[in-house]
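for the record, two folds in this file. i put them one after another cuz i was lazy. first one right below, seq on top, structure tokens after. the second one comes after a little note so u can tell where it starts
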Amino acid sequence: MLGEESTSADYWKKCGDEALAHNIKGVVMMGAHWDAPGDFLEISANPKPAKSPVGYVHPSKYIDYELKPDLPTSERCLTILQSADLNARLNTKFDWIHDTFLILIRAFPSGCPPTTIISMNAYYDPHTHMKIGSTLRPLREEGYLIIGTGGAVHNLYRNVWEPMILYRNNFAQQRAPEKPLLEFRQSVEDCFARNKGPALRRAVTRLMKHPDYRHAHGTDDHFMAACFVAGAAGAWEDEDLEGATLGAGTIPTLLPFSTD
């Protein structure tokens, strides 16, 4: 989706500009396409990662963007996560996927900041991913930007693919999105906008019990980053901060509010 111009792409640029204005040291992020095999959690440590090809996006939009892996911070994340009894390890061969580098291109078009990528755990337990975020939360106080990318709604089984396959049209709206998808999208916004501190963590992890969750997510991978950021932004200290707002949302191929 971020291979095309959209309000979400514009909003990522705004976020990147604000991050640079705060002189961030680097980025720590979790995407939606990398899960470690078994009961593990992996941290990117490839000094020269390649970019995985992006379907329906011309390579000219990403191929020349130079990635900047942050190996010292990868080592720090490993130590921090292991100290919290999380089964973490480095992956020195991981190549970056579009769920991370397309975000970085949109947010930081002038150059990639030092970046560390955290994998998901393939068991897709929401509380585990919330714990990963809460464990890495202290990096925020040191000037690191913590990002999670996925989608409030992401169910490829319910996509309408014809406009993309036949016409390369990522934003065709031949009919309105189905009600269960819109209901869940609204619930995601409500959880982030109406909760702060530990209440945010409880609200987001509880969304996997929402009656429309499986309509909105055919698989769990694109929801784990939401749990991750809820952990990173849901400490008691965060109750005094300004609450979250919906900055932008895009409806590609009948899946509302996908931010992938």
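(here's the note) second protein begins now
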Amino acid sequence: MVASIMRHVAKECNTPMEELYSHIGWPLNKKYGNALDAFKMSITNHDIWTGITFPSDVVKNELLSYIGKRLTPQPTKVRADVEVTCFGYEGIDAVKDALRAAESKNTADTQVKVKLVSPPLYVLTSQTLDKNAGLTLLEQAIKEIERNIRASGGECKTAMAPKAVTENDDAELQALMEKKERENQEVSGDEDESESDEGPVKETI
């Protein structure tokens, strides 16, 4: 990977490979043990370049830009499914409050989103660069839901424990949500038809 990055920069900047290695690659190997590890760390820590003398600003800009494109980690999507019910006095309001609790600690860097599939099934998702941190985040969100809904006499069951999901998982979830939506619309249509068959309800004084 280091050689591939160096070749790209050498070609784009018309700079000999040996010059790039002598100014950048070898000093990073000596300082950090591996230039590739140094490249990866430099994405979030620019101090990595302290003491490195670039052949030119053009080389520096091209190298940093290419490292960002090639080595920036891609976010992982994590998901959990929960069933939340409450047959107590607060009912649906208690469910809504419990689900809001799962999102209450969201920050710019950590976001939990809750989506309804079909009552009582809800989906919790998050995008993260650190899969383990994302899984822990969803586990904490589920605990918040459990704590809040139980305080209102309800219940939260984990239908699917937090896990990393793929595009296929997302497609299956989307298909399930669309299916549930169609079923709900059909039920709603049957109720409307039933009401119309009975005719208008006469008002009594």
